[in-house]
Amino acid sequence: MSSVAPVVQNPFRQQFAAFAAGRREPDAIARLRREGLDRFASLGWPTRQQEAWRLADLGALAQIDLQRPADALVDAGVLPTLDLPVHRLTFVNGRFAPGLSRLRELPGQALIASLGQALLTHPERIEPHLERLPGLSQHPFAALNTAFWEDGAFVYLPRTTVAETPLHLIFHATGDDIAVYPRLLLVLEDGAQATVVVEYRGKGRYLNAPVAELQLGAGAVLHYHQVQEEASQAFHLGGVRVRQGRDSQANLHLVSFGGQLARTDLDTLLDGEGASCVLNGLILAHDRQMGDYHVRVEHAQPHGSSEQLFKSVLDGQARSVFDGMIHVRPHAQKTDARQSNRNLLLSKQARANANPRLEILADDVKCGHGSTTGFLNPDALFYLRARGIPAEQARTLLVHAFANDSLNRIQLTPLRERLASSLADCLALGNIEEQ
Amino acid sequence: MLEIRNLHATVDGREILKGIDLVIHPGETHAIMGPNGSGKSTLANVIAGREGYEVTEGEVLFDGKNLLEMAPEVRACEGLFLAFQYPVEIPGVANLYFLKAAVNAVRKYRGEPSVDAMDFWDLVQERMELVKMDESMLKRSVNEGFSGGEKKRNEVFQMAVLQPRFAVMDETDSGLDIDALRVVADGVNALRGPERGFLVITHYQRLLDYIVPDHVHVLFNGRIVRSGGKELALELEEQGYALYNEEPGRARRAAA
C-alpha cells in the first residue's frame, strides 16, 4: 500500500496549483492553504499500516480520480428542513448557495455568513481563528480541507450574545468522482450561546471531507448537531475540532446514517477550568456500510468534565469503529471523564470495533469507560412477543429503544423527531435489502 | 379450554417433560406444585412458546386449536398469558407504551381498531388500582430498576389490562414478601371468573392460601404423579416432596 501513496498525492498538488491561482484572498489564507497541502504531502495517503487508519478500507476511494466539483444546482425540495424558524445557510458542492439560504434578524454584532463573503467584509474576525485550533494535526483529509476549502459557514457571536434562533447549515454534494471540502468556523465569545445543526448529504459517488472548528469562550454554551446522511456510494471523512474556555459547555450530537464509508475525527480540548462537554454519537449502518468515530478528549485544566456516549446499530455486513481517547494532563486535577461505547448487532455478519483509551497523568481524577457489543436480547424479544407483539415489531421496538437512548439527548425536538423517523427508514431499508 | 396430552419436551436434548396430561376447563384454577427441577417452568415455557424448548411428543390444544403450531405472539393474541418467573428488563421502552403496543397488537389480531387513547387510559387507571401500582411505574422503562415485588406486580398489572382468557402464573410468588404476595393474589382473584382459566405454578403452598385452587397437581421428574383438590397442597406442606423422592421406582427411573 505505501508505494501507492506518492502516486495518489500528485494529483492533489497539480490540482492545487490551478485552484490556488484562481483565488483572491488574503495572503494569510493562501499561506494556510499551502501549509495544509504540505501537511497532507508529509502525512501521505492513509494506509492500513497506520494505527489510526488500520480499520478503514480506503481502497475503493483511492481508485477514484477525484476532481474538483462542477457548479451544480439543487432543488430546494431535496433539502432537509427543521420545522422551525432558523438561520439557514446552504452550500452545494462546497459553494455558497444564496438562493437556498435565508438569514433572519441577528442580535447586535453577531455575524453569520458564508466564509468567503465574510473574508471580504470582516477578515479581521476570521484570520485569528481559522486553522488556529490544535487537534486533527495527523488527519490527512483535514489537511486537504485546509488546502482546498472553497467556502463554508462562518458564525461569530460576540460576548454574551445569545442566538435564540438555531442555525441550520446544509452541505449538499452532488456528482460523481468529485471531492468537496466544506468548512465551518464557529466562534462563540465569552458567554455566547448557539444551537447549530449541520447536515451533510448529497447524491452520487463523491468524497466529502469537511472540517468544523468550534471555539467556545468562557461560559459559552453550544448545542451542536451533526447529521451525516451522505449518498450511499459516498465517502465522508470529516473532522471536528473544539476548544473550550473556562466553564463553557459543549453538547455535541453526531449522527451517522449514510455513506459507504463515514468517519468523523473529533478532537476536543477542554482548555479552561470547569469546562464540560457531552459527546453523543450514533451510527446506523447496514449492508456494507462502515461508520467510524475517532474521538479525543483532552483535559488540560482542572475541574473539567466530559461524557462520551457512542453507540452503533449494525445490520447486514456493516462495521463500526469507535476509537476514543481520554487524555488528562498532569495539571487537570478533579477531572471527571466518562466514556461509554455500546454496539447492537442485528446480524451475525456485522462487526463493531471498540478501542477505548485512557491516558491519565493527573492523580486526582475520576475516569471511567466501558464498552459492550451484543445482539438483541432474546429474552426481551420473547417477553414482547409473549404479550402479543409480532416478532418484527418487537425487534424494531428494541432497536429504537437502544438508539433512542442517544436521540433522546437531543433537545431540539423537530430534529430529534426527524432523526427517529430516519432511523426507522434506515433500518427498514436494511431489512429489505438483507432478504 | 386447555388440553395437554402426553406432552414430552426436551431442553438441549435432555428430556424434561415426560408425558404430561392435564385438562383445564373454563373457570377453573389449577395449581402445579413440585420441587426444583421437576419441569414446572419448562411446562410454562412450552405453553407460552419460548424458543429452546422442543416438543418431542404429544399435543397442547387451546380451545381445540393446536397451540404448539402458533408463534408466541399468536398464542398471546388468542388469549393466553404467561406471568414470567423472571420478568425481563427492557431499557428504553416505557411501560405504558409497551402495554399499549400489546393491547393494540391483540386488537389488530382480532380485526379491531386501535384502542382509543382515553379508553385505554381509563382502563390503565382502574387496573393500576387493582395491583396498587404507582403511576410513576408507567413512565419507567419496562421492569428496569423495579424491585422483585414491583416486577411481579407489573406482571399481574399487564394481565389485568390484557384480560387474557387463560393465564399461566410461573412462580409468581417467588421472592415476594407477604404483603406483595397478597397484592398479587388479590389481583389474580379479581380476574377469576367463569370464562377464565388459570394455571398457577408454585414451589410453595403459601400462595395457595391466597389463590385457592380447584385442583392441585404434583409434578415430579417430568410427570404429574398426583392430582387432588386444594387439600393436597396442605398435605405437601406438611410432608414436603421427600415422599416422591423416596419412591424407589421413580427414583431409579430418574437416575436412568
UniProtKB/TrEMBL annotation, chain A:
Entry's InterPro entries?
Fe-S_cluster_assembly_SufBD, SUF_FeS_clus_asmbl_SufBD_core, SUF_FeS_clus_asmbl_SufBD_sf, SUF_FeS_clus_asmbl_SufD, SufBD_N
What are the TM regions of this chain, as residue ranges? none
A UniProt-annotated Pfam family: SUFBD_core
Ranges of residues in domain SUF system FeS cluster assembly SufBD core:
173-402
Q: Which residues form the signal peptide?
A: none
Query: SUF system FeS cluster assembly SufBD N-terminal domain location, by residue?
Result: 26-168
Write down the superkingdom of origin: Bacteria
Please give the NCBIfam families that the UniProt record associates with this protein.
sufD
What family name appears in the similarity comment? Belongs to the iron-sulfur cluster assembly SufBD family.
This one is known as Fe-S cluster assembly protein SufD
Q: Which organism is it from?
A: Candidatus Competibacter phosphatis
TrEMBL record, chain B:
The family database entries (Pfam families) matched by this protein are listed as: ABC_tran
Q: Which InterPro entries match?
A: AAA+_ATPase (IPR003593), ABC_transporter-like_ATP-bd (IPR003439), FeS-cluster_ATPase_SufC (IPR010230), P-loop_NTPase (IPR027417)
Q: Which domain of life is it from?
A: Bacteria
ABC transporter domain segment(s): 2-246
Record keywords, A-Z: ATP-binding, Nucleotide-binding
Q: Tell me which PANTHER family the record gives.
A: ABC TRANSPORTER I FAMILY MEMBER 6, CHLOROPLASTIC
Give the UniProt family note: Belongs to the ABC transporter superfamily. Ycf16 family.
Q: In its UniProt entry, what is this protein called? A: Fe-S cluster assembly ATPase SufC
**Annotated source species:** Candidatus Competibacter phosphatis
Name the gene: sufC
